[in-house]
Design a protein that fits this description.
Number of helices: 13
Oligomer: single chain
Strand content: under 5%
Structural class: mainly alpha
Order of helices and strands: HHHHHHHHHHHHH
Helix content: 55-70%
Largest sheet: none
Distance between the termini: 40 Å
Shape: globular
Number of strands: 0
Radius of gyration: 21 Å
């Protein structure tokens, strides 16, 4: 998800897509709400119940941004190697930190008997530690999500990076953008596979996750090749289009179930095109510092939140906070709301520590190590 990440574009026309970054932060919040096991007012809203669909925005944004930053820069296998190291440097360190945290929690189960779960079994198996370290855990290797569940997106995203680099390097007529056409064909195939083969359609993670990611990522790449050539609206018309886009996506996600949900990726392609230009009032709102900052923290929020929720569930079961067995419920939905808000603040606080203590230092180190050597005259 950290494309999910390189919104800092390193091209002759360098820029940040701040509004798109901020939308990534909003989507990360909605994914957290989807996972949060608290009987709040919003728990049963369709937008939250189907919040897993916001992950597909990450894939589309990633393809768009990666193509913008790197499509013209990968000329040799060495370039591709540096690209992969830089991409891994943005996702792997924080992933390993959270994997270590989950393993530590499992050791606490083993040594201190903190709950009834049998340590190092099922989705927390020892062998899954190694597939997670290699970021291949979501390539239909396991029969379920493993360890830090949300990290499945990193697994398939890295696979998309490999395919992207291979297409840019080896598909003929690169300068004509033929690789984008090949990628678009792959995206269509991915969409068809998810719609016709995945048991839960777009709510697929460990089995048909790669086709799902390819679908979004390479449509994002295709969009990047044409987005500047598409006339865009200005002023009030741009604002109206932005509002209509947000409302349309929210209504669709709240309603969509089954194979029709596959179309959400196409809607996210439209959203990236609409907000990349930053022409309307909603874009200006998204460009404000709090939302831009949330966007920059979003990867850390996404990566740490499941660990916090797992620890919370262990505590909640011991303190009998889950009378129905599924959700934390204090007997008052308003108290539940306050608890959910406090929980989210705690998640963000931990994410800030992870962002500044691990994510950013690792990125700076990898950037220094992969910086091309200066040519001597």
């Amino acid at each position: 998800m950290n494309s999910v990440a390189d919104s800092k574009i390193a091209t002759p026309h360098a820029r940040r897509f701040e509004a798109l970054d901020s939308l990534r932060g909003v989507c990360a919040v909605l994914v957290v709400m989807f996972h949060m096991p608290v009987a709040s007012h919003w728990r049963d809203w369709g937008l939250v119940q189907h919040g897993y669909l916001f992950v597909d925005y990450f894939f589309v944004l990633s393809g768009f941004v990666i193509a913008h930053a790197y499509a013209g820069r990968l000329k040799t296998p060495g370039d591709a190697g540096r690209f992969m190291v830089r991409r891994l440097g943005r996702v792997w360190p924080l992933h390993v930190l959270m994997l270590a945290a989950f393993v530590g929690l499992e050791l606490a189960r083993l040594w201190f008997d903190i709950d009834a779960a049998t340590p190092f079994t099922r989705d927390r198996s020892v062998e899954a530690i190694f597939t997670n370290l290699l970021l291949v855990q979501a390539l239909n290797i396991h029969p379920s999500l493993t360890w830090n569940g949300p990290a499945w997106t990193l697994s398939v995203e890295v696979a998309c990076y490999v395919v992207f680099a291979a297409l840019v390097l080896f598909v003929p007529w690169r300068e004509r953008g033929v690789w984008r056409v090949v990628g678009a064909v792959m995206a269509v195939v991915g969409a068809v596979l998810v719609a016709t083969q995945a048991p839960r359609w777009m709510n697929t993670t460990y089995d048909y996750a790669f086709p799902r990611a390819v679908y979004g990522f390479f449509l994002g790449c295709l969009l990047q090749g044409v987005w500047t050539a598409i006339p865009r609206l200005k002023g009030h018309a741009a604002t109206a289009l932005e509002v209509a886009t947000v409302v349309g996506i929210a209504v669709f996600i709240a309603w969509a179930q089954g194979p029709v949900a596959v179309w959400v990726t196409v809607l996210f392609v439209g959203a990236v095109w609409v907000f990349a230009g930053e022409e309307g009032a909603l874009s200006r709102l998204l460009d404000t510092r709090p939302l831009v900052t949330l966007g920059r923290w979003s990867f850390a929020v996404y990566m740490v939140h499941m660990f916090v929720l797992m620890v919370l569930l262990i505590v909640a079961r011991k303190l009998d906070w889950m009378p129905g067995g599924r959700r934390i419920d204090f007997g008052s939905v308003w108290i539940n709301d306050l608890f959910a808000v406090a929980l989210f603040i705690g998640i963000v606080g931990l994410a800030i520590l992870a962002h500044h203590g691990v994510e950013r230092p690792a990125q700076r180190l990898v950037d220094r190590l992969t910086k091309p050597a200066a040519r001597t005259p």
